[in-house]
Amino acid sequence: MKFDELDAMMRVYETANDRCVEQGVYMVARIDGRSFTKLTKEKVSFNAPFDVRFRELMADTTRHLMNCGFKVTYGYSESDEISLLFDLDINAYGRKVRKYNSILAGEASAKFSLMLGELAAFDCRICELPDRKTVVDYFRWRNEDAHRNGLNAHCYWMLRKEGVAKGAAAAQIEGRTLEDKVALLASRGIDFYTLPKWQLRGTAFYWVDDEKRGYNPKEQREVVSSKRAIKTDIYLPEGEAYAQLVRGMLP
């Protein structure tokens, strides 16, 4: 059998499950850290429950992904996860799901590992969202998840630092209402509502026009140049105010 015939025959197996996302459907990539609990608690010493160093590693990784060849209009990060909203008309790699998943997981893993100096891995999945409302709901979901995780993390690590064992600390939190958890923190002098916003609502990344002022000596006048830059926002609102921010990223 000639190589061309063999190649054509075997390509069928390679591309048999090559699914593409239809045009007009919004795509969001969800990139999650793999075994990050072990990484951040055993291999690398980060402060608990939150560490600015880890937040900045995730922020740098998100900005890298927004500049690695895909047209991303909005990025969001909380804990060890990143969500990227692609331009509605993106057509990179023919919108093949496997290409987006493999490239983004690889780029995130490489970038984070190089910065950390330890092996770190991410997985990726593509969410296909039918309309603007569902896109807004998706990011509100992640924003609310950040709030839930932030509250649980502060309660858990407060108890752990008091000497409570892992299982017992988790059991004390499980099943409690939001009000109960806030009261638990308050009983130790921690005002949940004054904690840093990024710990409770995550971090957003979006494109803005960055103006630079300079001086043209030849023409002897001030000049203003503008270029697109990624704004990192660690002071996110909640509820409808956050939904409105996300809507502003959509066509």
UniProtKB/TrEMBL annotation:
Short name of one Pfam family: Thg1C
GO molecular function: nucleotidyltransferase activity
InterPro entries hit by this protein: Thg1_C_dom, tRNAHis_GuaTrfase_cat, tRNAHis_GuaTrfase_Thg1, tRNAHis_GuaTrfase_Thg1_sf
Enzyme Commission designation: 2.7.7.79
Superkingdom field: Bacteria
Keywords noted in UniProt: GTP-binding, Magnesium, Metal-binding, Nucleotide-binding, Nucleotidyltransferase, Transferase, tRNA processing
Gene3D superfamilies noted in UniProt: 3.30.70.3000
Signal peptide, first to last residue: none
Cofactor: Mg(2+)
Similarity comment: Belongs to the tRNA(His) guanylyltransferase family.
Protein name as annotated: tRNA(His) guanylyltransferase
Domain Thg1 C-terminal: 134-223
Domain tRNAHis guanylyltransferase catalytic per the UniProt entry, residue ranges: 9-130
